[in-house]
Amino acid sequence: MIRFNCDYGEGAHPRILARLQETNFVQTPGYGEDEYCREAAEMIRSLCESPEVDVHFLMGGTQANLTVLSAALRPWQGVVSADTGHIAVHETGSIEACGHKVLCIPHANGKLRAEDVEALCRAHYADASFEHMVMPGAVYISNPSELGTIYTLAELSALRKVCDEYHMLLFLDGARLGYGLASPENDLTLPFIAQTADVFYIGGTKQGALFGEAVVIRNAALKRDFRYQIKQRGGMLAKGRLLGIQFAELLRDGLYFDLSRHAVSLAMQIKAALQESGYEFLIDSPTNQQFPIFTDEQLSRLSESYAFSYQCRVDAKRSAVRICTSWATRAEDVERLISDIRRG
């Protein structure tokens, strides 16, 4: 079985495993206060061209989202999200469990539109009883989105403007950030993201690390006491060096970006083959996640050899699935899939 159902099915890049082995018996302070975490944090500040940002290393995306938003929001505030957002769908109500409502609004190809966020805020404050309702305190987006689409520079700037107008934090989930930056349609840069978002993170779990996400904080108020929040939410890893080592190696010599380009390049090959063979798509994605529509017969045949992530039923005879490439996807597996796709 060849798996195209996710981008975290493999372990870690060999360079990371080798570096973990090399440093295995080095004694360091705990809880992320070691030389490796400091090195990785400085590398991130340099890549972001933002020496003032704080960098914290957490173990996973859900933990990062929960920790950031529980620190960012006051008890009476909620977070605005697309109704397809990860915090709204695939995190078992973790945000609500810490006392904050997820304020869902319809998505536009998986993304939030600034005008929709503004409409929600305007309606909230136009209601005479607004103090009786959950106050929008932050905006959550992911880049790429859950549907593989990416935000443009203009779209991110428009969201920043709305957040400033209504005194909300802008939080960008970057679990797959490298794949977004590697997209042929991307016009965002790490420095622009670091200057536009109050807080974002650079994903490692889905991009070549064993585990880990690097949270980058620009907002001064959010920086304060953030390590208390990490500890309270169970994110302060005693052997924090394991995160620093991984990110330092992942970012060294551009490995992170090379791996991202690898995954996106293979996804574009699959996309081109599907288009040439006349397949339709649930959505047009320019990243490592592709969403073709197959008939039940086609899907049954392909599923004998490949694992996909089921997306939704399209009509009586067809379903959409997600085909996901990763940093470790093999070219020969993609070639085999393309060959079987072309068989119809």
From TrEMBL:
PANTHER family: L-THREONINE ALDOLASE-RELATED, LOW SPECIFICITY L-THREONINE ALDOLASE. Belongs to the threonine aldolase family. This is Aminotransferase class I/II-fold pyridoxal phosphate-dependent enzyme. One of its GO terms (biological process) is amino acid metabolic process. GO terms for molecular function: lyase activity; transaminase activity. InterPro entries: ArAA_b-elim_lyase/Thr_aldolase, PyrdxlP-dep_Trfase, PyrdxlP-dep_Trfase_major, PyrdxlP-dep_Trfase_small. Its cofactor is pyridoxal 5'-phosphate. The keyword Cytoplasm does not apply.
